């Protein structure tokens, strides 16, 4: 089916790229044991060193912001891709190097978008290692026409529920630009037991890490401080929508018991923040029952299509997503208009 045969565009909202220079930085970080992050080392040692068909494809596709990427989009019937720096981004790098490379990668992405403005949009990469400079880069990226911000969960085993990261949230809220919290391999203490059975990556560990991070943001009161902050989470919400009832019940019980120093009363229920401050994408979850559940629980306007290119490039999965049992108008929301609204594409 071509776009002319459809009543909607297919906009893919979680698509990755990587400047080739970042591969060299990752090789150096791994070789020199620069960070204590076993999940990162495991993931990127594989993608950088393996000659498997998948790893070769991922390496080549990540570095392409031109003809190959567009050809793959065409083969899958994707009309536009919202592209962001791949996980773990600049977050494993030393602080100043991370700040500089974020700017470099944003410039490179903005140039590609300028060449292909009807096919590409993009998100600003920042270095949470320096929240003040990250906020300035958010402003610069916004000025270049980038449509949101990408952060890959933890930064060297640190989550953003600490107030020291508030400049990032302040900048996103002030500019009304969405923050995409993308998965990273789990923090050290979480990653090691999962690695024994290969569960540290996208099969499971990514969702555990990212959902925990998002819930920490909610429970710490970030959305009480920044009520208009908009956050996007992939992979059908990293399973958070499926836990809303129990999250509300148990959080209420913990607050009443005053069991944890870091768990204080919030202005709303956890499920309220999820429904009001979060949007989710279908990246890697081309399974109609899961998508339909999320639409039912969160609302039709809260779920956006994504492919997760190039890590899960299966052109047939577009058809699996279109098997959801919704109206033509709701299908257009899923594939097009929700993305246009959230990321300001129109």
Describe the structure.
The protein is built from 16 helices and 9 strands. It is α/β, with parallel strands linked by helices. It has one domain: TIM Barrel (Alpha-Beta Barrel). The protein has a 6-stranded parallel sheet. β2, α5 and β3 (120-122) form a beta-alpha-beta unit. The two termini are 24 Å apart. The mean pLDDT is 97.
Summarize the structure.
The chain has one domain: Metal-dependent hydrolases (TIM Barrel). With 346 residues, it is an alpha/beta fold.
Total number of helices: 16
CATH architecture: Alpha-Beta Barrel
Largest sheet: 6 strands, parallel
CATH class: Alpha Beta
Task: Give the ordered list of helices and strands.
Answer: EHHHHEHEEHEHEHHHEHHHEHEHH
Label this structure with key terms.
alpha/beta; 346 residues; 3-stranded parallel β-sheet; single chain; 10% strand; 50% helix; 16 helices; 6-stranded parallel β-sheet; TIM Barrel
Write the SSE topology.
Blueprint lengths: L10 E7 L2 H12 L6 H12 L3 H10 L4 H10 L3 E6 L9 H21 L4 E3 L1 E2 L5 H13 L5 E3 L14 H10 L3 E3 L6 H8 L9 H16 L1 H4 L5 E3 L1 H4 L5 H14 L12 H8 E4 L6 H11 L4 E2 L12 H5 L6 H16 L3
Parallel strand pairs: 1-2, 2-3, 4-5, 5-6, 6-7, 7-8, 8-9
Helix pairs in contact: 1-2, 2-3, 5-6, 6-7
